[in-house]
Amino acid sequence: MHKYIILFFSVTLFWCGCKSDSVPGKFIQPDAMTGLLVQIHLIDGSLYNGTQAPDSLYKYGMGKYLDAFRKFHTDSAQFRKSMNYYSGEPDKLTAIYDKVDKQIKALSDSLNAEQAKERTRQLKKDSLKTDSTKKANLLHKIPAQKADSVKQAKTKKAMDAKIDSMKKIKHTTKPNAVPIK
Question: Where are the alpha helices (DSSP H) in the chain?
Answer without folding.
Answer: 2-17, 30-49, 56-71, 76-88, 90-171
